[in-house]
Specification:
With 111 residues, the chain is mostly beta strands. The chain has one domain: Jelly Rolls (Sandwich), CATH 2.60.120.1110. Helices cover 0% and strands 65% of the residues. The protein contains no helices and 7 strands. Strands 1, 2, 3, 4, 5, 6 and 7 form a 7-stranded antiparallel beta sheet that branches. It is globular, with a radius of gyration of 14 Å. It starts with a strand and ends with a strand. 24% of the residues are buried.
Length: 111
């Protein structure tokens, strides 16, 4: 298991990216990837959090969206299975609303 985004509090509107995780096609025996997001706090006026798993086949020069978590505005937990097995992954997260604050962790599992 690789945690892509350690527990953190985000309190700014905008788009950000996690560090890159190397797995998938370059790893022997990898045939499935799962991502789990655990939102432990959500506040603000109409806060929204959109998290998308992205992948790259060219060393991170080009990133493609694969699978997104459901948009959340509340404390929640969700597991998704990205459709693409690739050498590199990262998370794209977009925070919206007025004075939004989210505390969450997202982990990637390769097996």
């Amino acid at each position: 298991m690789k945690t892509l985004l350690d527990t953190q509090t985000i309190s700014a509107v905008g788009t950000s990216y996690s560090p890159t995780f190397q797995a998938g096609a370059s790893e022997s025996g990898i045939n499935a990837v799962e991502a789990q997001q655990n939102v432990t706090d959500a506040s603000g006026t109409t806060p929204t959090l959109d998290t998308t798993v992205q992948y790259s086949f060219d060393g991170g020069a080009t990133w493609h969206d694969t699978t997104a978590f459901a948009q959340t505005a509340i404390v929640s937990e969700e597991t998704i299975s990205p459709a693409q097995i690739a050498p590199l992954y990262r998370l794209k997260y977009v925070v919206g609303g007025t004075s939004p604050v989210f505390t969450f962790t997202t982990a990637l599992f390769a097996h």
